[in-house]
Records
---
Amino acid sequence: MNTSATKITASSILLFETKILMALIKDLRSASALMDWDRETYMPLGGAEDRADQLATLDTLAHEYLTNEKAHELVKRIENEILNCDPSEKPLFAVFLEDFEKATKLSSDLVGRTSKAQALAQISWRKAREENNFKLFSEDLQKIIDLKIEAAECYGYSENRYDALLDLFEPDVKASELRNVFNDLRKETIGILSQVKASHKEIDESCLFQPYEESKQMEFAKFIAAQMGFDFNNGRLDLTTHPFCTSFSVRDVRLTTRIYPNDIRSCLMGVIHEAGHGLYEQGFAKKYARTFVADGASFGIHESQSLFWEKIIAGSEEFWHWAFPHLQKAFPEQTQQVTPRRFYEALNKIQPSFIRTEADELTYNLHIILRFEIEDDLINQRIKVSDIPEIWNAKMKESLGIVPAGDAEGCLQDVHWSFGGFGYFPSYTLGKLYSAMMWTQMQKEIPTVKSKIANGEFEPIKLWLGEKVHQYGRAEKPIQLIKRITDRDLDANDFINGVKAKVQNIYG
Amino acid sequence: MNTSATKITASSILLFETKILMALIKDLRSASALMDWDRETYMPLGGAEDRADQLATLDTLAHEYLTNEKAHELVKRIENEILNCDPSEKPLFAVFLEDFEKATKLSSDLVGRTSKAQALAQISWRKAREENNFKLFSEDLQKIIDLKIEAAECYGYSENRYDALLDLFEPDVKASELRNVFNDLRKETIGILSQVKASHKEIDESCLFQPYEESKQMEFAKFIAAQMGFDFNNGRLDLTTHPFCTSFSVRDVRLTTRIYPNDIRSCLMGVIHEAGHGLYEQGFAKKYARTFVADGASFGIHESQSLFWEKIIAGSEEFWHWAFPHLQKAFPEQTQQVTPRRFYEALNKIQPSFIRTEADELTYNLHIILRFEIEDDLINQRIKVSDIPEIWNAKMKESLGIVPAGDAEGCLQDVHWSFGGFGYFPSYTLGKLYSAMMWTQMQKEIPTVKSKIANGEFEPIKLWLGEKVHQYGRAEKPIQLIKRITDRDLDANDFINGVKAKVQNIYG
């Protein structure tokens, strides 16, 4: 009898059992995701309270099945088997172990205290923001920070307590690395920003902010998403207050958007952004269906896919060379006096502003770096909660050259801290850096890619991203994924060079 | 220490535990219902296969939680406690016991064999119907009948094996009682039918079948549903291939309809029908939320609520006295040459036909009685499957005076047998009889109800049904419910008298 064959069988049985458990949990999560999607899209108002109960039941069940005796037993067997298993099976085991550990490292007491504190903090944050008064939020925020510190100690870390929280959003990425990359990025960004100012060029954005009929905006955005390769046989697009992308399988991916009647940018760029996420969700390899691998490698990698399409493709002059005639057909009146070039410039206008979500491609990162530094200092107890407004404003002054008039447009603007999302913000900028690195590589491998964009040929781009990124899902960590694709480690160079070129093109 | 107080505490604890388990199962069922609703309304085509897996997971989990060790333990304690418990708690325990028993009486082997046979039978039924050839279905149908006989033996019965299957749809109703009621009903129906024929009056239905703009049909149907009292803050209306009503809580009830561009009846009467179901689902007492009591008392009682609104209210001359001017406003062109009386007559035209779902109010029951008799004979092995077409056609000839040209418009027309729904058909006619008995009682208690209808005042009707029927959910069996409301046992008299009066009015 062949020993190796015996081993394969043992690991195959184990894989089979692990897959069955993952499928059960994944189906519960899909049901929960559908309940969420429905709540945001079609649920009647009256359904909110019962829906919260139903979601709690599904989420609790999913957590129970991931942490019960059977799961513990599987984990022990996987730990014995994982070094000997077939390489193709390894990711399936690895993500199961990872999620099991995340789910079991926090005591249910800590989870309970945290979810209660977050529920209360969301209320006080809302009130504080409305009243433009950080003090109304500071006590609850302190509690959340204490709980996050407690959680970080449970998760464990080697260098920096904040790494334990970062890891939830960006596995294996360290604060020390981020600090280096972000320092370069800030320095270069401030340099570019002063160039923009020195040019004294005023970009006219008015073409974006005209009356655009809502149903036609939706139709046009859907057309663009379909051209990108988003498959509407395996997905749809609906309206919500805040745009998002969710999925219940690779064959059922849901995008949402909002429409402002006097602003084409919000709906259009929103749909392109979400369709970028959607292509990722539609692209996981079939073999990972109903497993934990069928998910984004990280928040940052997911964001890289949406930003790739929104900023790199749809933010390019080539794209509007192709897309503008289609826009003209849809909106002949609004585009009569506009050229593709003017539309492209309007979309790429650079101007320091207070609100992160409204910031341009370049200054956006300064908002993120500021938050990253404050979070790192808070979690390491180097600064006090009560000092946040002052620190915030000083950092805004230093990097963006502007100071918010109050906390509402300053340190109270984001919901993240109130729901305990410490470690989340860096993903946004990482997404930009990853996408720029992928774009550099794509241009090497598809030298004609820019002319393809100018012709509206997006299939090679979708295929490239599918082959290099999408199919893997969580089978690789972000660091490995970027290394495999670009043969380099994370840096800000490609992003900076890209923005420099664009600024040169637009501002001269 | 007071013994009775101690007993109350023991039963309260038991109730608390039972309610927690029911809430868990109910939430899983709600998630499953939402996944079903989504599949019929918005799910992209590609999602079908994964959705089937997800539904199977949720349904299996719900079944497991209803039949696991904890449930067994609760059932034992409930059986000890139920005679001593507070009367208000009894329905909660009773429905739990009932569902537990239904879920545990069939072996999982039988359940598995049945669901496989049904999946195959649905394929062969579809093929047989397409090819107009019963023989292609007969073998699979025989298997299903054998499995239903096996199931009936597991469930148990006292008089008639068919009662065990009837009980799944209409608890405690016996075939022997139905046979008596149905014999009266058939005799009287045939009498009325010959009267209609003798009148030689031809009703012109053409006003129903004109081009009616689809979005306006939807708007008008929504308006009528809202007037009936269906609460759109706690519900919605969407489009599907086959109309249905489902709910995820009393505050989230979903109706669906279909629209034919050249037929106003289908959408309008469909919405009124489903809104009747919807009012029932919106009307369960709050104390039954997230328990098994928050459901229809039976298929027949549920159908009585939809038919009450569709046939008794919206099929009345008084209703169209009020509604017709609204219809005229919505469709001025289509109604120019039409009077309320003509519209009312068109909706109530009586004419024997082959297809059950297209039958008028009167002859519909003859279709049901025929199916009931054949099912009873099949389950009791008094007739052979191969004889069904011949028996079907003979019964059609005898009762309706017409013979279908082939099996497709004869014994192959309904999907029910292919999914094992033996015992289901009688509910449709029971719904008619129940609603007629309720209507008689309502007229006694609200003597001005007809003039209220003529004024579009539906609030008293909704309140009456809410108080007498809706709030109870499954807390009462149909037999008790009808007895409490009307102080009578089930009979066909009210239905027959109602139709007689209508026929007299229309056909003279």
---
Amino acid sequence: MNQQRPDIAVIGGGQLARMMQQAAIGLGVRLRLLAEGEDVSAAQVIPDHIVGDHTDLDDLRAAVRDARVVTFDHEHVPPPHLEALQAEGHACRPGPHALIYAQDKALMRERLSELDIPVPAHRVVTSADELDDFVESVGGYPVVVKTTRGGYDGKGVWVVNHAGSAAEAFATGAPLLAEELVFFTRELSALVVRRPSGDIAEWPIVESRQKDGICKEVVAPAPDLSDAVAASARDIAKRIAEGLDVVGVLAVELFETADGRVLVNELAMRPHNTGHWTIDGAFTSQFENHLRAVLDLPLGPVAPREAWSVMVNILGGSVEDLEAQRAEVLERDPDIRIHLYGKSVKPGRKVGHVTAVGDFLPDVIVRARRAADLFEEGKSDE
Amino acid sequence: MNQQRPDIAVIGGGQLARMMQQAAIGLGVRLRLLAEGEDVSAAQVIPDHIVGDHTDLDDLRAAVRDARVVTFDHEHVPPPHLEALQAEGHACRPGPHALIYAQDKALMRERLSELDIPVPAHRVVTSADELDDFVESVGGYPVVVKTTRGGYDGKGVWVVNHAGSAAEAFATGAPLLAEELVFFTRELSALVVRRPSGDIAEWPIVESRQKDGICKEVVAPAPDLSDAVAASARDIAKRIAEGLDVVGVLAVELFETADGRVLVNELAMRPHNTGHWTIDGAFTSQFENHLRAVLDLPLGPVAPREAWSVMVNILGGSVEDLEAQRAEVLERDPDIRIHLYGKSVKPGRKVGHVTAVGDFLPDVIVRARRAADLFEEGKSDE
């Protein structure tokens, strides 16, 4: 354990903290980690780590004690704890006043509506009767029901097709938000980064392709994106970053509709899966710019370095030993960029990602999918 | 400390091991470090480290114990210890039979001569009389005298201008090698990487500019390099890698002469200062390809990503707090790529490097020099 004062305390030891460390090494930034266990993804690569629970205020205090600033691998720190840390003089970036909108979907919808940012029609519902009223207000089924807090990667989200089929959602006992089911043509993501001083940088808008509610594939920049939609998506992300006083990376997941509108789906106030392509495909990665932003350093250039970058997640499949599989993946395509998270393989778990870059998009997509397939199933149809 | 078996044991905790870790994180490769102290450069970023002495065989054994392969941050492990590790079944990459030529300049000169690779005229000298004979054989002073082992960054090297001025060198008591002083027009470096199977990849030939015997600046690719000289430099590096059975990165420092010849100056069998530009300027960095090579994985593409990359070392100067200086450097040039090594500042010590990339070389050079100046002295004339 090194004895130097850390620059940044990172709460949560997942792959986002792990990838922050790659950027921190170059910048000479010292990270301290609050890790869920001794050998979690980021604890494998950050010597100065404390094992503890991010829902325990004393563990949080131990981790942030002498750090200059505090940032996050996830949104799961309880808001009262964030407020307590802030009140005790710790600079949380993003701060609790911003993070709450990434933690609570009902508050987020309400606040974005106030900011006049387009969101799906929505209402907090506490009973089947209230849900019926909402369904009627949007012209009938299907609608979407979500827990206001704690859902991610498709968990805590139900598509409700008829009266009574929301029973599972109500059975959770959690506060629920009902939303219109947006008939989108595709999902976009707007990734921006903001300093405490207000400077903002915006990576190109990307297209995100989901599988079973989990981001599976990202194409950067989004193909065939009209200038108007791109400008609208960028404008929305900037206004949210400013309106909510976000510091660090903000990812705004968006629905693009057939009539050229964009609506906000979700927010994340940390490096995000739809920004992993920036490690290999942009002049400054989201991880480096996140660190630069939370330290209030000038932001790095966000231009793409290649015509196309395609990132595909590696989800846990039948291949158990990803490290052993590396050789075959690289044998097939030595140019593919591999990112393994040091996680054990479980079905559907995000255990890594691959990125391909190049000039001809169909080829870049095939290469990235093939590499991910090989890591998941040991074979590929691509 | 994590409990997993490491993939690679790295001997030596300097900046090369530190930068290997950035690549290792992506590949999902677990490193174990033998570090000189608890908070040396690489120990700050590699949790699985052992503090010990690379000249102590038991410390080496403890570090390499359960690692799949062993590699190095420097050339200072005593050859008998390397032989012992190898005999005990540890795969040293490069192996002692190759490393010896990076450790002993007399053996290196002899072996390269056998391989018919151009080197300066040279002779091992044990007395002033033998030095006189050598001086006569090369047509008079000046000549260069070097310790055969242990020198680096200008240490252990003397330019001898007249009889008697080699006294300091002889006073060391170390075995000495006398060499003709080559009147070179510039220094080049040929960086290649080789797998155990024999596959080789070659980055572009770069120009290296020294200051007081220390590499200060690298321009990639070497400007105005004739095709013939480039081919000759590449050919030399490949023949050395093959002839000496090098595994991993090999850097061949070369003199280019006015009449278009290249002569080998020094060898390094590890990532090398003249290859740091590859982190930001090539599709695969020397650090990633070194790891891929020692694990016998397919090598990544070595093409440059930009027209020009210029790396300038940050040598310890009057600025003591490099981390505090980061803000000013980035304020002046947010596009500069910063690499700090987590080392305390001492006069002339390599404490980091910066890399600029771009299309117009004079501008790229100015930007890189200015950033390094700001880190060294807090101001720049550029």
